[in-house]
Amino acid sequence: MARNTALYFRLVEGKNLPAKDVSGTSDPYCIVKVDNEVVARTATVWRDLNPFWGEEFTLHLPLGFHTLSFYVMDEDTIGHDDVIGKISLTKEFIASHPRGIDSWVNLGRVDPDEEVQGEIYLELHIMQDQYRSTLHCHVLEARDLAPRDISGTSDPFVRIFCNNQTLETSVIKRTRFPRWNEVLEFDLRGIEELDPSDQMISIEVWDWDMVGKNDFLGRVWFPIEPLHKSPAVTSWFRLLPFGNTDEENGGKLGSLRIKVSLSEERILPSLYYQTLIQLLVESVQSPDQGDCNLLALLEEICSAESRQEVAVKLVKIFLGQGLAVTFLDKLNQREVKRTVDPNTLFRSNSLASKSMEQYMKIVGMPFLHEILRPIISKIFEEKRYIELDPCKIDLNRSRRISFKGSMSEHHILESSLETLRGYLSDIIDAILRSVEQCPSGMRLCFKQLHKRVEEQFPGAVYQDVKYAAISGFLFLRFFAPAILTPKLFHLREHHADPRTARTLLLIAKAVQSIGNLGQQLGYGKEQWMAPLHPFIQQSVGRLRDFLDRLIDMESETVEQIEKMNKAHKGLQRSFSKCGQISRTLFHPSVTIKEGFLHKRKAEAVNLVTRFTFKKRYFWLSSQTLSYSKSPDWQVRSSIPVHRICAVERVDENAFQHPNMMQIISQDSETQGGHIMYIQCKNVNELNQWLSALRKVSLCNQRLLPTYHPGAYRNAHWTCCLQTDRTVRGCSRTHLAVTLGDWSDPLDPDAEAQVLYRHLLLSKDVLRDKYLENSLNAEKAECKGHSEKGFAGMAVSSPARCLLFAIEDLERAHQAFEKREREDTPIHSHCT
């Protein structure tokens, strides 16, 4: 059985941010930290106090977390970036909103005493004799302390208060991983006479400074009374802040609109999800039952807010079952049959629309990148000033694009029209030539959709409806959104600047018009788009021919394509490693990630120069991590994935370089490990590579529990200052902390568990709506379904069988939870 904590967050936008630049604006971006570790960075929005980011992330944290923080920064080209403000949300606060948080939150001031991190390792016990009681506090070590000095380290020492006595450890210089191994003793005589709130031991960690006051690094505290009743308490304790005493700033620092949700899943063994999976499989394999079908039931009971995640999980479950195309056909058939006006077909955010969107993203994202990336990159690089709306033309901007002074409005319109036609021609030509590149699964879905629409709306009068249904998905829900916001579809690393964003908006509008088969041309307020109408009309004619060729695939069967999709996404195998890890394998032939990085071997010279880092092109598959001088270089070096022991971040002070990671591998013949240091160009690239490498090596046999965040230089580790090169690591590894991604392989158990969670929230709705009067009478009929198999359930109502499947899973979770409580020892210490 595995545990999975998935933290989803979306940074939507900001408003009323304070100006940090002399121009009266700011260049804001956001940094996201989980327990003081940077996990994401948004793109910078230049010269804007009301920025829009729209960036979303899903982080998998098997060991949980304590705090999620958002920092809004102002980027400066010279000097350090300015901190505008922050928002911190505790895990408990997020968990108290089971349907997620979606609201505006005011930014607060950043208090250095609140920016604490790390843990301290202590042993506490009380020695008693006939004369006195003595508290022995053995301060062993600390790890992952906050860096307070310019070198990226600290000079930590510990100060302990107990029974009106104060003692301190020695100062350990230049480290975030100090080892003191000192015992401090406190006489407890008379402590019972103190106020109960003072009958405790307070342990504070400080950074010693030669000049100025010392910096606070965190604290823990314990009541003395429980220590009298227990043996020695030895453990790692999380360092906590003093406590925020700031008053509400009233929004003076601006605010962020954020979406956050937390799901803590106990992934049961596969056997427990078979009833739910089998019900879903039967729902797409059985003859159509109209509104009594289980898929119709799912759409009705799931809230609009949860429909997208439900669609994602259903698509992945059916991909794993080799039934995704059949599932989508079932949904689309139902959607088409209940549509009266063909103009409203698939215009709502129904389960069918959401599922088709998610299927295209999962299966078709490489196709999208292949088609659009070269053209989008060209648009970003050229940064042309383009405008068709006379009301928005800025003649002053034209001075920067012409050596002949200001251009007239007429010349700007003509130049813009010519450039737009060129970009659009490149995009449309690339799309219309892409029949063979389009994934077979998408083509088959469109072919079946074409057939369903033609059956529902026959005749020449509805000739365009069957084309519009396909182009609505392919152009309006796939290509146009990617053109409008390429950052959100991983086509670019940064958001477009205002000039490029306007160009992309105009192109996306034209692509939408083509996808609508030109039906809206001449209507609406944007009559200034009229000069593009001839090009749009011409493209519509070519589009129909393209769609005919796209769905012309007589040679392939549904079964062949489903098998191919299933293999492409990976085969799921679940087994237990210490009862905690569920394995998901990538298909061996798939290149999971590739790109240029800078590498350095640990065995290189001690002197760190820019020449010790070599630029290499890397490829990652499920079997090897390979690299060479360039993508076309014939000679490649490689590391077998099964030999990877850890993939971790590197402290910035180790090489004075940011965004670094290390890959620790081990040969079967040797005891020691080999370390390769990798530098990425930004924190997002770093997290993506960390995540991809951890996913493929998650279940390797010799994963390390600890590692050194620093480097071994000048005969010692820069992190913990230990001189033995082979000494045990000073920090915990993050074996399964990964980012969710559209390219993740399938894990049907995890997908089924999330689907169950959404259904559990709707259990009362399901019962009240369908079973209020007949549940007691019918329950006996289905009670023996586990002995009789699913044949007895097939004749039962989908609502009843789904409700029983939910209740069975609920009882299984309760049983496992009870077992865990009984097996977990209760500790009397607290922090």
Search tags:
831 residues; alpha+beta; Immunoglobulin-like; GTPase Activation - p120GAP, domain 1; 4 domains; seven-stranded antiparallel beta sheet; five-stranded antiparallel beta sheet; 28 strands; 34% helix; disordered C terminus; metal-binding; zinc ion binding; zinc; PH-like_dom_sf; Rho_GTPase_activation_prot
Layout of strands and helices, then pairs:
Elements: E1 2-15, E2 28-34, E3 37-41, E4 52-60, E5 67-74, E6 82-90, H1 91-95, E7 101-106, E8 119-128, E9 133-143, E10 156-162, E11 165-168, E12 179-187, E13 200-207, E14 215-223, H2 225-228, E15 233-238, E16 255-267, H3 274-285, H4 294-301, H5 307-321, H6 324-337, H7 351-382, H8 395-398, H9 409-432, H10 440-456, H11 465-484, H12 498-515, H13 533-550, H14 558-569, E17 593-601, E18 614-620, E19 624-628, E20 637-640, E21 644-649, H15 652-655, E22 660-665, E23 674-679, H16 683-697, E24 706-707, E25 712-713, E26 716-717, E27 731-732, E28 738-739, H17 748-761, H18 763-770, H19 775-782, H20 785-788, H21 791-794, H22 798-823
Antiparallel strand pairs: 1-4, 1-16, 2-3, 2-5, 4-28, 5-6, 7-16, 8-9, 8-15, 9-12, 10-11, 10-13, 13-14, 17-18, 17-23, 18-19, 19-20, 21-22, 22-23, 24-27, 25-26
Q: Work out the number of β strands.
A: 28
Helical amount: 25-40%
The first-level CATH class of the largest domain is given as: Mainly Alpha
Q: What is the name of the CATH superfamily of the largest domain?
A: GTPase Activation - p120gap, domain 1
If classified by CATH, what would the architecture of the largest domain be? Answer: Orthogonal Bundle
CATH topology group of the largest domain: GTPase Activation - p120GAP, domain 1
Indicate the overall shape.
globular
Q: Between the first and last Cα atoms, what is the distance in angstroms?
A: 29 Å
Structural class category: alpha+beta
- Average pLDDT rating: 84
The structural domain count equals 4
Quaternary state of the chains:
single chain
* Main sheet characteristics: 7 strands, antiparallel
Regions with little confidence, pLDDT below 50 for 5+ residues: 569-588, 786-795, 825-831
Number of helices: 22
- Biggest sheet strand line-up: 20-19-18-17-23-22-21
User: Compute the gyration radius: what is it?
Assistant: 30 Å
